[in-house]
Design goal:
202 residues; alpha+beta; VC0467-like; 7 helices; 25% helix; 29% strand; globular
């Protein structure tokens, strides 16, 4: 057991390095490998708002539910895109991320190629009249929120890892999204990504 503990300690990251990373709108925050919280275990969350005064807001990207879009929007009965669980807050509300190729009014740019929301009815009408089903949409139930200072505190507590966001990862449907992003952060994180969820059982 002692040798196993030393092996895990070898791959602990320095939280001071994490909190020096610039956390901004469009960043990803990834839960650390051993976070026990069932809601956030091995999740990738896209930051859509972040400030010292108002706190932080984002969507989990890698937790598909058993629902599809047509379960919530009858007008889109041909759209079989999965609906994702975005977080524990307001999880009876449907949100959407998209690339705005359909030119939806009032959409907010989160990072290049990724927009949040916009005119909901216009979105429905434009999807209905589009020549092909949209590929760069992600529909999400609920969101994740942090009070002012809470996310920084959780970084210090080794709960999160900060990564640069990208459109292709936002719209990915990969079951291994958390691991893929972790592997892209360098050797230290590659080792963390390869560790089992319950190392004490090995």
């Amino acid at each position: 057991m002692e040798n196993k503990k030393k092996a895990l300690d070898r791959y602990k990251w320095n939280y001071k390095k994490e909190i020096r990373k610039q956390l901004r709108i469009g960043s990803f925050v990834l839960s650390q490998p051993f976070l026990a919280d069932d809601v956030f275990k091995r999740t990738v969350c896209l930051m859509c708002a972040h400030s010292k005064e108002e706190g932080s807001f984002g969507f989990i990207l890698n937790k598909p539910t058993e629902f599809i879009v047509s379960d919530f929007i009858e007008e889109l009965d041909d759209l079989a895109l999965p609906v994702y669980f975005g977080g524990p807050v307001a999880n009876d509300s449907l949100y959407f991320l998209h690339d705005n190729s359909l030119q939806i009014e009032d959409a907010l740019e989160i990072l290049p190629g990724v927009y949040w929301g916009g005119d909901f009815q216009q979105m429905i009408e434009k999807i209905k009249t589009a020549e092909s089903s949209p590929k760069h949409f992600k529909f999400i139930l609920g969101y994740s929120g942090w009070d002012p200072g809470q996310l920084r505190k959780e970084l210090i507590e080794d709960s999160w890892i900060v990564a640069k966001g990208s459109a292709n990862k936002v719209f990915s449907s990969s079951d291994d999204l958390w691991k893929e992003i972790m592997n892209g952060l360098g050797d230290l994180y590659h080792h963390l990504a390869s560790l089992p969820e319950r190392p004490e059982l090995n």
